[in-house]
Amino acid sequence: xxxxxxxxxxxxxxxxxxxxxxxxxxxxxxxxxxxxxxxxxxxxxxxxxxxxxxxxxxxxxxxxxxxxxxxxxxxxxxxxxxxxxxxxxxxxxxxxxxxxxxxxxxxxxxxxxxxxxxxxxxxxxxxxxxxxxxxxxxxxxxxxxxxxxxxxxxxxxxxxxxxxxxxxxxxxxxxxxxxxxxxxxxxxxxxxxxxxxxxxxxxxxxxxxxxxxxxxxxxxxxxxxxxxxxxxxxxxxxxxxxxxxxxxxxxxxxxxx
Length: 257
What we know:
This protein is α/β, with parallel strands linked by helices. It has one domain (4-233): Spore Coat Polysaccharide Biosynthesis Protein SpsA, Chain A (Alpha-Beta Complex). Helix content is 34%, strand content 21%. It contains 8 helices and 9 strands. The protein has helices spanning 19-24, 49-56, 70-83, 103-111, 132-149, 165-170, 180-189, 213-229, and strands at residues 4-12, 34-42, 60-63, 88-92, 117-126, 160-164, 194-200, 242-244, 253-255. The strands form 2 sheets. A 7-stranded mixed β-sheet has the order 3-2-1-4-6-5-7, with helices on both faces. Strands 8-9 form a two-stranded antiparallel sheet. The radius of gyration is 17 Å and the shape is globular. The chain starts with a strand and ends with a strand. Mean pLDDT is 85; it is low at 244-248 and 250-257.
């Protein structure tokens, strides 16, 4: 049988200090019938992000001539994964805050036919070391998503997510500053099944985030309203794109056509 193609993409802006280690820790051989490729979306970095990524083993690199923003980088990652034939796309931040070695766990609900879109949830896992202002901000914006969707979400800000091919194709991000809330609102309203998977939180040890709470208030809230108020059509989603004969990832994977 043909191998399932999983492309893991990393939006990156000046992450030379951390991205190599993240790429190194991405599991490549967790199943004989899964082929893993790594894609870096270089969002106009001025440091050695590209060189370090190549040295660490990235398979594809797409570079913006100048910084366009996290939302634009994620949008490009989704598009490139679909264009390059991914059966599943996985997003993980390049800063080391999310555990790359947990990617197989993130994929499990998709392989089992339980979800089309998964998110790694630190609040279902561990959040030790997360700064109070980030924790409170996450609570507020996640609760807003919960209210709008009438579906309980625990970690709406997660930078670790996985998408079936259909979700890659239909996902829309309507602004460039960030993606977290509008992407989930968009996919769930279109009928895609979302499931959260517990992950541990790693305290960022290098670099600094360019996403600020003030920026969230001034840019993300209007974007949430814009996404929520616009009309979206339900998608005819293929059922059971992937299915495990047994729940263990060590068993044979069967692709459902």
